[in-house]
# Entry
Amino acid sequence: MFIRFLTLIFLLTFCAADAATITISCDSTGIEGQLCKRHAQDWAKARGHEVRFFSPPSSPTEKLALYRQLFAARSADIDVIVIDAVWPGVIRDHLIDLRPFSKGQEREHFPAIIANNTVNERLLAMPWYVDAGLLFYRKDMLERYKLSVPKTWDELERTAQYVQKAERERGNSDFHGFVFQAKAYEGLSCNALEWIASFGGGQIVETDGRISIHNPAAEQALSMAARWIGTIAPRGVLNYAEEEARGVFQSGKALFMRNWPYAWALAQQSDSPIRDRIGVALLPQSANGRHAAALGGWQLGISRYSTHPALAADLVMYLSSAAIQKERAIKGSFNPTRPQLYQDEDILSNNRFMAELGLVFAEAVSRPAAQTGLKYPQVSQAFWDTTHAVLSGKTDAPSALKKLDAKLKQIKRRSW
# Structure
């Protein structure tokens, strides 16, 4: 009896000593934060460990700045980090290689995303969900005014002006034609890249490293967008990120919205004023251009300063698994990174627009992160600052892009 008691004490002590705590960065609010926390807790319960949650800033720019501070201090405060699509090259020296832990799971994801997450043959992050810019619209209002979904930016502008005027005459005084992300941050880089690429103006820095931003097509695209401010878009859009734009659209105060796919699930919730009244389409193109959506998405990586890298990797593989991605797609409209899930009937019945996302991804344009490497944050900030100055009327597009061209060449001289 005494020996059995000692054995029990030993087992309890051993298990307690073997338990560990893994900290993951999850958003503090919204469906993304809720799902991240619940799935991490499910993993912890099944594995006999504990998870803690770190709530980073909502802005991707501020997130990256905070992570770089933690890396500089070699902090072990966070084990699993949620990583933007353009970060692997920027923080490559602070992430572990996941291939020793993945057991080949990377082959089940879109190859282009795995390539994006691989630097110097090291797999620095597992794909979590993929994004691309979309045009959301009010189906009921287009039907009311017998208008069609715009295929070009000119059509969008004319339609937005017409419906905005008509709605305001009906007493909807704070109704707007179009909302998007025009705050000076990474989201504006995505929006502006979409406009410019759709006009055939390149992608700021081309894959061969050539700086291409100073061209007539890019000037035309930014001049067009500047024309929207205070006409079909409120001046307040200059301070809108994703959630501000969604708030206006979902409250029923806008006809069109540019946003990421996550907005679909929120707009379709039972308490949404526009539930079952929205549609999703490709972003418009120029008259002689193409549809262009900024490719985005988020990945899961592990800090090289983690004290439990193997356990952290196990959590990453769980969160990026097919089962978890399926649930995230159904409950949060997060686009899976596994091609086979786009044939899943449960996912498609809850997210009808996902059946068309192959077209969106086929037309997607990448931000110039691969070619600019560690300098990408500087390149993107210079780009969004320039765009914001044009949109706010502080300068015109030709003058602004000429200065941006000189700025990017200065950054390049110090090497990407």
Notes: The two ends are 70 Å apart (CA to CA). Confidence is low (pLDDT under 50) at residues 2-17. The first strand starts at residue 21 and ends at 25. The chain is about 45% helix and 15% strand.
